[in-house]
Amino acid sequence: MTPRKFIVSAVAVAFFFMVAVPAGEAFFGFGGKGKGKIEEGVKAPPFSGVSLAKEKIDSASIIGKKVVLLDFWSIYCASCIEEMPHLIKLYNDLKDQGLLVLGINMDSFGTRRVVRFIQGFEYKIPYPVIIDRKREIATAFQAMVLPTTIVIDGSGTIRLYHVGYKKGDEKHIREVVEEALKTLKLAEK
Question: What mean pLDDT comes out for the span 39-66?
Answer without folding.
Answer: 97
